[in-house]
Design brief:
With 411 residues, the protein is of the alpha/beta class. The protein contains 12 helices and 18 strands. Its cofactor is FAD.
Length: 411
């Protein structure tokens, strides 16, 4: 017998947990099925722009998250030689957009979301439960899990595939093949703040643009650590998010004849890196069928050149919870409503990220024209051109005011 309030979510990542909290707050019982036998605070840093922080504030994450996040004053854009191109004043986000711009380690945000789930008695998290198959029936859907530690069946009203770019739910739903390699490898690491020069400890998102590669670094964990991500053209494919990376292979992609000594010195400091291959998909017309839908990277994997991958999953979660809350007696219609409300928005974000891929990685002479244009345009104009991204508003039920001092809190 299916509980008419039970929602099944495959995947306990950022999108899946945000959806679980939002749904529980709207009267649903949620079962989150996660294939990992334990959850660890892994991953890279995240940029949480106002469109995402509005939702996080709305689900009550602000007090915990603002304590570990950093509120950057600006995005400092430089070319590979270290020449300043623009300073984008994202520190004005609370005044300009009504919500803060935070940077945080993914593991810290994940921990905050897990803590919030633990306060909701209607959320059940099942670890070691890999979604193997699902069967649609008159009352909803039943998921069969096949380990690694939990074998069983879980009935629910709907199934939400929030299981990432290698989604098993998507494979079962559409059988349209794996995501496509983007020809880019990302390396990530954390450095203690006292191990880098003082300029790198400032509350700034640093973005360096070079031929075929770029570098991003900013403080996380209340300023105690520096998140460092290097992305470069690379045809080698590695599986998973945490394959080991060698320091020398990172420096090979950032050669001394092209990159400044300041950038290379920073890249030379870590003793260990983790690496993953970037993947993408063409925009999809169909996100779901019957009582099954997809969320986040499972349906619209977004290259990290607009800093919107996590934000899109968070937005998806808010709209999906709102759609189901509006039509709890017609869940399949609610899922189609959610998909229709999200399709154009996410497709636009994916396209914009791909455009940035080209702009970030230009070689000469096109890079010189890009650099000149950015200097002329200036950071204020660059920020205003991102207004369509940051001004997005969640459903009205998420517009919950944060306690004084928390919505724009700094680390």
């Amino acid at each position: 017998m299916v509980d008419s309030r039970t929602i099944l979510i495959a995947g306990a990542g950022i999108g899946g947990l945000t959806a679980a909290i939002a749904l529980a707050d709207r009267g649903f019982r949620v079962v989150v099925l996660e294939q990992a036998p334990r959850l660890e605070p892994t991953g890279a840093g995240l940029q949480l722009s106002p469109n995402a922080t509005r939702v996080l504030i709305g689900i009550g994450a602000a007090p915990r998250l603002s304590a570990v996040a950093v509120t950057p004053d600006e995005v400092r854009v430089r070319n590979a030689q270290g020449d300043d191109l623009a300073r984008i004043p994202i520190g004005t986000a609370p005044q300009r957009y009504g919500a803060p711009y935070w940077v945080a380690h993914r593991g810290d945000l994940h921990t905050v979301l897990l803590d919030l789930c633990a306060t909701r008695p209607d959320i059940k998290l099942v670890l070691g439960a890999r979604v193997d198959e699902y069967a649609v029936h008159a009352n909803g859907v039943t998921v069969a899990t096949a380990g690694p530690t939990v074998v069983g069946e879980f009935p629910g009203l709907v199934l939400i595939g929030a299981d990432g770019v290698w989604s098993r739910v998507r494979a079962r739903l559409f059988d349209d093949g794996p995501a496509h390699p983007a020809g880019r490898t990302a390396w990530r690491t954390l450095l203690p703040a006292d191990a880098v020069a003082p300029e790198h400890r400032a509350p700034t998102v640093n973005l360096w643009l070079g031929r075929g590669a770029h570098l991003v670094h900013y403080p996380v964990r209340a300023g105690a650590m520096i998140n460092l991500v290097a992305i470069a053209e690379d045809e080698e494919i590695v599986t998973g998010w945490s394959a080991p990376g060698l320091p020398e292979e990172v420096l090979e992609h950032f050669p001394a004849h092209h990159w400044s000594a300041t950038a290379r010195d920073l890249l030379a400091r870590p003793e260990q890196w983790l690496r993953w291959s970037l993947h993408g998909r063409p925009a999809s017309r169909h996100w779901g069928r019957g009582p099954v839908t997809l969320l986040g990277d499972a349906v619209h994997p977004t290259l990290p050149f607009l800093a919107q991958g996590a934000a899109m999953a968070i937005e998806d979660a808010a709209v999906l919870a709102d759609a189901l809350a509006r039509r709890p007696d017609a869940p399949q219609a609610a899922l189609r409503d959610y998909e229709g409300r999200r399709r154009a928005r996410t497709a636009g974000i994916v396209r914009a990220a791909r455009r940035n891929d080209l702009v970030y990685h230009l070689g000469q002479p096109a890079a010189a024209l890009r650099d000149l244009a950015m200097r002329i345009i200036g950071g204020e104009t660059v920020l205003s051109r991102h207004g369509w991204v940051y001004e997005w508003q969640p459903p009205a039920s998420f517009a919950m005011p944060a306690p004084p001092g928390q919505a724009g809190g700094t680390a």
